[in-house]
Predict the structure.
Amino acid sequence: MMKRLFSALLALILPVQAAVSQPVDEAGARKARSIAQLQSEGVPTIDHLPTVEPESESTRRNTEAVVQRTIALAIVAVKGETGDHAMGQALIRQFDAASFFTPKEQAFLDDPNPSDQDRANFAWRYEGVHVMLWALGISPQLERPDHICDVPFIAKTIRELGTDGLMRRAKLRPQKELLDAADLIYRYDWAAVNARLKGEEPPGGLDKGVVYEWHYALNWLIGYMDQDWDDISTDT
């Protein structure tokens, strides 16, 4: 009798001990939260889409790198929007930003007469600035990617703070928050791409251009596949 009782107690205790010793599935929990949010918004999901990497395997950008990326994106976006070559050069000097640009950005800034397509592509980088300002703790939230960002707010913020002011104000968000946002946008982007392939409008009112730009910026922030800015993948 005592032997059977001991066995029963052991059977009850062992699963608890095993559960305690199991590491928390951080990436899986993040994925589950993202899926629950998208489902609440009526945005389609697929369960077999992978997780983003956990904190221990992700790249933690330093604040200076994120500030420089913010300034670089703002300058190329202004030139993309206006087509004003002289203004672009003046902004580089104003923000002491000559070393902040990638090869593709530098080629665009050096071109006095870029194509309309190049201008349009770089004008979209305002969305990347929006993501960076959020990551730096300057903007309070990302909201939903269903409308373009507040460009006047971006321009005012960059103009008033400048490169040094951004560095002083910046407080890079915890890696967990960056990974949460990256996982969520990854699944938004799958839904937007899936709709495009089916010849449908993006679900849940998503703006596919905004989704793409946020996905691009967030993948850089978490060091996805160790890719440089010019080569970021937005796989879905």
